[in-house]
Amino acid sequence: MSEFTHFDAQGHAVMVDVSDKQETERVAVAKGEIVMQPETLARIREGGVKKGDVLSVARLAGIMGAKRTPDLIPLCHPLALTKVTVDLALAPERNAVEITATCKLKGRTGVEMEALTAVSVAALTVYDMCKAVDRGMRIENVRLAHKSGGKSGVYEAS
């Protein structure tokens, strides 16, 4: 296990200095879902949500969220992302919307937080757009599914 490095010698929180790290292509994929009532999922599928096209708005919100990660998560580096995709798929067998975000760049630090933020913001957007009809929705299973690049190598969730 690597040492936790967000503290300086005096014990103060700091942003990690990555200037000596080698630039590599870094990719992270995060996944999550929002579970809801069957009727809510049907409204999303049929375009019956008063606030508009839920999946398109959530996709855009997720991309925007990834780009704003350093504004939301303390000590995250501002990154020049080269690619962000957010895919949303209906999963009627679980009454859920599945969300997958992929973030990519060539740089000195990973993009895991950006991918996780994209999934979270997309899920929160679905919730916001549908809460008038279903306040019991649950955001679940937000997790890192894949990471590559950097010294720690490749991670694949089991």
From TrEMBL:
From the UniProt record, give the pathway where this protein acts.
Cofactor biosynthesis; molybdopterin biosynthesis
Gene3D superfamilies tied to this protein:
Molybdopterin cofactor biosynthesis C (MoaC) domain
Q: Quote the catalytic activity from the record.
A: (8S)-3',8-cyclo-7,8-dihydroguanosine 5'-triphosphate = cyclic pyranopterin phosphate + diphosphate
Q: Which GO molecular function annotations are given, in alphabetical order?
A: cyclic pyranopterin monophosphate synthase activity
EC number(s) in its UniProt entry? 4.6.1.17
- Per the database record, which ranges form the Molybdopterin cofactor biosynthesis C (MoaC) domain? 15-150
Keywords attached to this Swiss-Prot or TrEMBL record, sorted alphabetically, are: Lyase, Molybdenum cofactor biosynthesis
**Any keyword Hydrolase?**
no
The cross-references to InterPro entries, in alphabetical order and at most eight, read:
MoaC, MoaC_bact/euk, MoaC_sf, MoCo_biosynth_MoaA/MoaC, Mopterin_CF_biosynth-C_dom
Q: Name residues in a coiled coil.
A: none
Q: Which residues form the active site?
A: 128
Q: Which residues bind substrate?
A: 75-77, 113-114
Catalytic class of the enzyme: lyase
Give the source's domain of life in one word.
Bacteria
The UniProt family comment states: Belongs to the MoaC family.
Recorded hits in HAMAP family, A to Z, give:
MoaC_B
Function in brief: Catalyzes the conversion of (8S)-3',8-cyclo-7,8-dihydroguanosine 5'-triphosphate to cyclic pyranopterin monophosphate (cPMP).
Quaternary structure, per UniProt, is: Homohexamer; trimer of dimers.
Q: What is this protein called?
A: Cyclic pyranopterin monophosphate synthase
The root-end lineage is: Bacteria, Pseudomonadati, Pseudomonadota, Alphaproteobacteria, Rhodospirillales
